Amino acid sequence: SASACQVDIRIDVTADDTGAGLIQVTVDVDAEAVTMVPGIAEDIRFDDLVAGGWTIEGPLQVNNGGLRVIIRYPFESPAEATLALRQISGPNGPLLQPELKRTVDGRLVSTTLDATLQLVGGLNTFSDLALTAALGAPPWTSAAQRIGVENPTESVSVTLVARLPGTVKKSTGTQAEGGVVWTATADGAAQSVVVGAVSER
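^ thats the sequence. predicted structure below, dont judge the formating
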């Protein structure tokens, strides 16, 4: 059935104690979606992100006929990371008002990530108003429309993993995978993403 089509989106944000790091977004489309929707990989439009400094790897064949696309953005500062995270999110999510911050107090470096993780309307959430105006459609929309699932949120999962330097002092997520992990719920509920870590220089 169409409901078995699955798209998994994972956002990894990794920062070091200088405030530099990497954002990586991994998009996995399962074999059933690939079979039902030929050319789905070509439907994910990354031109705008490439123009904005992102690199694209894929689509790669994975998991017995599924496809994977990985997009990466190396950043030199928390402000640059914040701008990049806003490039892949729109007014409906999946990351609302993301902000990476770093403060230095003597030898202590505090790094925080704040956002709201929310999935409203499946893949269509990944829209950016400016990009939509410029390009006619956000990166993920046509792919989502072609899957044509009655309730897109059931077929889309979003996971956020933050790895910040030092010891995690506060977090609303689950500590795992060498960082803190949040997973968007299919019901569209908003989750507060808060993580703060402190390292010694």
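The radius of gyration is 17 Å.
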